[in-house]
Amino acid sequence: MKIDPDSTVDLSAQIAKAIRDAIIAGDLIVDQRLPSEAELADHFDVSRPTVREALKRLAAQSLIRTQRGASGGAFVNRLRFEDAYAQQVTTSTLLLSMNAVSFDVACEARYALERACAPLSAQRRTPDQLATMRAEIHRQGQPGLTDEAFCASDVTFHRALVDGAGNKVLSYQLAGAVEAMQPLMNMITFTARSREEIISLHTEIADAVETQDALTVDAALVKLEAYTRLLAHSVVKSRANRAAEKEPKTA
Amino acid sequence: MKIDPDSTVDLSAQIAKAIRDAIIAGDLIVDQRLPSEAELADHFDVSRPTVREALKRLAAQSLIRTQRGASGGAFVNRLRFEDAYAQQVTTSTLLLSMNAVSFDVACEARYALERACAPLSAQRRTPDQLATMRAEIHRQGQPGLTDEAFCASDVTFHRALVDGAGNKVLSYQLAGAVEAMQPLMNMITFTARSREEIISLHTEIADAVETQDALTVDAALVKLEAYTRLLAHSVVKSRANRAAEKEPKTA
DNA sequence: GCCAGATTAAATGTCAGACAATAAAATGTA
DNA sequence: TACATTTTATTGTCTGACATTTAATCTGGC
Fold first, then answer.
1. Which of A60, A82, A115, A119 could be joined to B57 by an S-S link, Cβ 3.0–4.6 Å?
2. pLDDT, position A17
3. Is the CB of residue B6 inside 7 Å of nucleic acid strand C?
4. A117 Cβ within 7 A of any nucleic strand C atom
């Protein structure tokens, strides 16, 4: 592990990269202890604060964890699916909010991915996952449910569908799509949507998943996507109309 | 933005979280300059090195960028799809290598996701993307091609297919799947694979994409997945046999 | 008045050394 | 042996300083 002190790049960034590469290459294995900060500072010929900045960078990516006290130190972290989920959701949320992704593009991606899971889920879903879907549908039908709660229930429903595929890698990949996009979509469409319509489609999905009817699940997801896009367009249109009424000249 | 000095959590982690939350909530917008390190230290009532550790954490997630000199400082970074790609690939690679994900699970996820893109790609691929696929197929047929080069070409081919869907969000989501899993698969199967077989399936895909025949693309991907899994199983089996011959007692 | 070069100022990057807090290990004692 | 105490290694944090970079400002000559 070496760095170039003459480079214009931050020393802490270089050190972080060197250690990260060593982890990816397998030179440092899970739960292995890194040298102490003092030893690393010595090795790279930098000061301890610089080493610490590098270690914090790695900690932010969940690549290492640190422990205080004697026989403490920095350890290579086993990257867990849950940690990766969280990062994916954060990243996806920011990507969508910062890059002016159109509703249609986000919606298309989200449903394309979900439809990739659906046939597997129809085949393999556990009774538990099916029960979760049923329970969320029931919750969604209760009067007095806030929009936030309805949205959260919606996410749980779709997560259960995705997890039904029984493939952790798929669930991880979908986490960003479902958890980041669903709230976005709900935020846009909740004023106009009909809960009955959504619940009816959710029920169609759950029924088909129960009977392991992959084709019907797919068809229901297609309908849900079409309905969601229709809603979004009507919202955008009515907003434009309101704006036009208010300021007819600048519209 | 506030922190709790009595918490057992690192101050730098708390500060990073406070700023990150502000960015996600939209209180800090893209390209906005954060207060200087000295001002942040003052605000949170901590020292400058502590603030710096927090900022490095955010920089590691591409949430901020820093600039030296007068009127420099830390700025909220527009998270670009390319940055997110890179992080996704790194994370996916580590997840696979650290979590003993079985070949079948990874393979299933990868092809399920790719098949989600394929119909869209058949519809929308540009002439340019089709040309890329053809060019890579041609390269794959050249004698003397190293295994590394063949693998890289394979990735480029599938990336072109995915990008053909013309949906940046889908491309981003798929980056992890294709770029992280393809090399893994090649590493496992390259000893046993038949390049002719793969090239023939690639050609089938390209032909179907050219004629916008989504069903045939899908069928070819299914065949490619089946072939890949077959290869992996034969490799695992022959390895087990070799191991059994070498040390019949510990096997 | 205007432009080129020198100067200044503000900010991050780095260093050195110190002390605090923590937790495991070593040690002493009943 | 079991328990309490001390030691020690390590990370967490602070202070203050200097180095480096870069934009803005000033200054002198035309």
1. A60
2. 96
3. no
4. no
Longest CA pairwise span in chain B (Å): 71
Indicate if CB(A11) is under 7 A from strand C.
Answer: yes
Catalogue the long-range contacts made by A50-53 (C-beta closer than 8 Å, 24 or more residues apart). A50/A11, A50/A12, A50/A15, A51/A12, A51/A15, A52/B49, A52/B53, A53/A10, A53/A12, A53/B52, A53/B53, A53/B56
Stretches where chain B sits below pLDDT 70 are 183, 189-192, 239-240, 242-244, 246-251
pLDDT single digits (tens) A142-198:
988 888 888 889 999 999 999 999 999 999 988 888 888 876 777 776 666 788 899
Structure tokens given for A75: 């350890």
Contacts of B81 in chain A (CB under 8 A): 95, 99
Subunit contact A99:B79, Cβ cutoff 8 A = yes
Residues 46-105 of B with CB under 8 A from A: 49, 52-54, 56-61, 63, 78-81, 84, 87-88, 90-91, 93-99, 101, 105
Q: Do B88 and A91 touch (CB under 8 A)?
A: yes
Question: What confidence score (pLDDT) does residue A247 get?
Answer: 62
pLDDT at position A234? 80
Which residues of B are less than 8 Å from A59 in CB distance? 13, 57
pLDDT tens-digit profile of A32-90? Answer: 999 999 999 999 999 999 999 999 999 999 999 999 999 999 999 999 988 888 888 88
Helix/strand/coil for A145: coil
Give residue B17's pLDDT: 96
CA of B65, closest CA in chain A: separation in Å? 12
Please give the biggest Cα pair distance in chain A: 71
pLDDT, residue A233, reads 83
CB count in 10 Å sphere of residue A8: 5
Rounded distance, CA B175 to CA B163, Å?
10
* B23 CB-near residues (< 8 Å, 6+ apart): A94, B63, B76
